[in-house]
Amino acid sequence: MRIDPGQHRADQPVRAGIPEHGRIPRYYAAKIELLALLDELGEGAPLPSERELAERCGVSRVTLRQAVTELVLEGRLIRRHGSRTVVAPPKLLQPLALTSYTEGVRAQGREPGRIVVTVETRPADARLAADLRLEPGEDVVHLERVLQADGERVGLESSYLSKARFPRLLDDFDPAGSLYAFLHEELDVRFGEAEERIETVLATPREALLIGTNPATPMILLHRLTWTPDGEPVERVRSLFRGDRFTFVTHLHS
């Protein structure tokens, strides 16, 4: 199989996967051909049989499986129990901005949802207390929720807020709803700025079980600390998103 290094999509690096010596790994050549096939098939369509695909790509089944596995990890294919592997839907685009998860998902015509895992009061450790400008040991409200999009589990979010600053949270807030909407609409909280750190990780066994994903699936971890316009801390959030289902986008200005 021949691949012209000059032929590439605008969202892919030039010569992606092609070593400088020009010898293209057979699994990668098969992967490129499979990508073209996925565009033809469309979302939700099942892949042809492994034998048919191996013949089409001119590779062994072992080599084909390597290409398919990479496409599954990248979120281009979905393996379903008891049925064939199918073409995945487009990834969700989540803005890196002072907007809620709910707003980001609804903007794409998808329905957000949350499964409540934990609602508790706990003492703040030294680091959390420093972030929220509390004394160590002061009570914070901890909300842990599985994030959904159209009923599919796509992430896990843990939010920490001062119980003294937001005493109505435990009594009045529906933990299955949007926390940002409640803070803004019910408590008149205004968000001024936030600091966000992003890294890639693998889910712990517990996190993988809650999200319903393979522990080998790459995850995107976001840490966010949010303040009001007056500089008062509002919340600290740890959000874990499936790397095969999310793309993050932001707008930069000079």
Explain the overall architecture.
27% of the residues lie in helices and 30% in strands. It is of the alpha+beta class. It has two domains: 1-89, Winged helix-like DNA-binding domain superfamily/Winged helix DNA-binding domain (Arc Repressor Mutant, subunit A), CATH 1.10.10; 92-249, Chorismate lyase. A hairpin with a 7-residue loop joins strand 1 (77-78) and strand 2 (86-87). Helix 2 packs across helix 3. The protein is elongated and about 65 Å long.
N-to-C order of helices and strands: HHHEEEHEHEEHHEHEEE
How much beta, percentage-wise?
25-35%
Helix content: 25-40%
Number of domains: 2
* Rg over C-alpha atoms, rounded to the nearest angstrom: 22 Å
Name the average pLDDT.
Answer: 87
Q: How many angstroms separate the termini?
A: 45 Å
List low-confidence stretches: 1-8
Overall body shape = elongated
Order of strands, main sheet, comes to 4-5-6-9-8-7
For this structure, what is the CATH class of the largest domain? Alpha Beta
Which sheet architecture does the biggest sheet show? Answer: 6 strands, antiparallel
CATH fold name of the largest domain: Chorismate lyase
The number of helical runs is 8
Number of strands: 10
**CATH homologous group name of the largest domain:** Chorismate lyase-like
Keywords: DNA-binding, Transcription, Transcription regulation
Pfam family, one: UTRA
Domain HTH gntR-type: 22-90
Protein name: GntR family transcriptional regulator
